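Hello again, I could really use a second opinion on something today. Take your time with it, there's no hurry, and the full record follows here:

___
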Amino acid sequence: MTEFKTEADQVVADTVAWLERAVIGLNLCPFAKSVHVKGQVHYAVSQASSPKALLNELVVELKSLATLDAKERDTTLFIVTNCLHDFLDFNDFLSRADRALVKLGLDGVLQIASLHPHYQFADTEADDITNYTNRSPYPTLHLLREDSIDRAVAAFPNPEAIFETNMQTLRDLGLAGWTALKVGPTAGPAVASSGHDQTKT
């Protein structure tokens, strides 16, 4: 059994396991494997316990990603462990995150995607298996480069079909199949059982 030096190490290990087994393993994101095998994914674990402190850390990560060459760091997974366990709170924070992006002058350069243990698409039930396409071990903000997204989409045939394909993949897998992947959190707060599922608007 691997021994981890810190809780943050375990959080990253959980996130990598989810990326490899679910995102890449189920091909939920056809673009993820390339940056993963090249070591271009940066994992940043936040210790912030309030949205205000979290926003300050997010600004640092956005600036770092914008400054570095894509060959060194193409994308960042900013993992939240001490706040925003409730999906409604997390969803509200996304507006603040997007405003920060605009304030930094990075709108159109970077974008922020959202992942959460209780992620719920609008017009779905909390236990709908399709929600698991966006369910990660911990609340996570995925910081992406617009240029990288454009290149990936241009190289992928029929990119508009990815969403529907993912929905069907999860329906075929079922909850038992997802559970068998063992991609839940093993460090930090028990975010998988705290808070309440909320419909994303």
In short: The longest strand covers residues 41-46. Strands lie at 41-46, 75-80, 110-115, 140-145.
